[in-house]
Amino acid sequence: MKIIIIGAGIGGASAGIALSRLGHDVVIYDRMRENKPVGAALSLWSNGVKVLNWLGLADEVAALGGRMDDMAYLEGRTGDTMCQFSLAPVTEQTGQRPYPVARADLQALLMETVGMDRIHLGRKAVSVAQDGQTVTVTFDDGSTDTGDLLIGADGARSMVRDHVTGGGIERTYSGYTNFNGLVPQDAEIGPANQWTTYVGDGKRCAVMPVAGDRFYFFVDIPQPAGRATDADDPVAQLREAFDGWAPGVQTLLDAIDPAASLNRVEIWDIDPFDTWVTGRVAILGDAAHNTAPDIGQGACSALEDTFALAISLATNTISVEDALLRYERSRTDRAGDLVNRARKRAAETHGFVPGATEAWYESLRGTDGSDIIRGIVGNIEGSPINLGVGAL
């Protein structure tokens, strides 16, 4: 079949690899003009890594990933260690080491693996139509393309989602702005092999190691919607928000080069919904389950979509439409559960539920990490990747 994919991000590009390796003629369109993904890096937990392994990219992804052996929480203002523990149990219980990776590096790997001859950048899709046997997409320059099936991996503001659902699905503000980017590793901020998080006052400031002796940093500030687009200096916003915090936080702020790597993003998500398919059109990734980053499962969930979609099409016994509906039924509950888990986590960590954040801080003090490991593994263990083995 000829399969058209709208969106060359993590979900769209990984789906392109999987479906082309099943023998389909895949073509990908994206409105971006070059590989400039939103967000500096992402967490690839064991479920996401396993999908990439299945796609034949195990060595490449391991080379991109930072070595994250330990996890620690520190008091935001004093820098005192609240807890520190090994992440080895995650690998032991899931069979796969997790990796933080720079998003641009991973996206470039996926796009190169698909083949740049299959990817057309600078093409904004504006409408979709289907006649029962084919699907046609129209672009803003008036050009069209027609295929047997279309996948919308076009993000949180998905045009394809509106075609699938009839529209009306709105995003919900999660209550905070996330600042993220890449800085050189510095022991004054945290160990090079550790996920280090400073917490206090409903805010957090964290670093994870990625390849190239860099830290991926992400900083959350609870604030009303609209502040993220203010004209003022984003680093000045950070200095104001973290005034009086620990020396490690100040070292991080000093290392940020806004011209090189700093993103400021309001965090929104979408209420879980069950309609991902209509006829020969389906959605995946943020188009289907826009998720707050609080449990680090956004990209992993998109990769799970790729696995489930490919398996459904590979085991098509009735029709394309039936295969897509099986994909939908296999994913909506799981993806919706992760959206809700991330919401619950955001409320707990950002002070949105009175008393809950202080109770969480208290639970961190002196813990051996077993409860945190249990939560991380709990997000992974329901993955569809655990039902399949081998490679395409």
UniProtKB/TrEMBL annotation:
Keywords: FAD, Flavoprotein, Monooxygenase, NAD, Oxidoreductase, Purine metabolism. It comes from the Bacteria. Residues 2-341 form the FAD-binding domain. Pathway: Purine metabolism; urate degradation. It holds the Pfam family FAD_binding_3. The keyword Cell wall biogenesis/degradation does not apply. NCBIfam families: urate_HpxO. It is an enzyme of class 1 (oxidoreductase). Its EC number is 1.14.13.113. The gene is hpxO. SUPFAM superfamilies: FAD/NAD(P)-binding domain. Its cofactor is FAD. It catalyses: urate + NADH + O2 + H(+) = 5-hydroxyisourate + NAD(+) + H2O. GO terms for biological process: purine nucleobase metabolic process; urate catabolic process. The keyword Flavoprotein applies. InterPro entries: FAD-bd, FAD-dep_Monooxygenase_BioMet, FAD/NAD-bd_sf, HpxO. This is FAD-dependent urate hydroxylase. Transmembrane segments: none annotated. Belongs to the FAD-dependent urate hydroxylase family. GO terms for molecular function: FAD binding; FAD-dependent urate hydroxylase activity; urate oxidase activity.
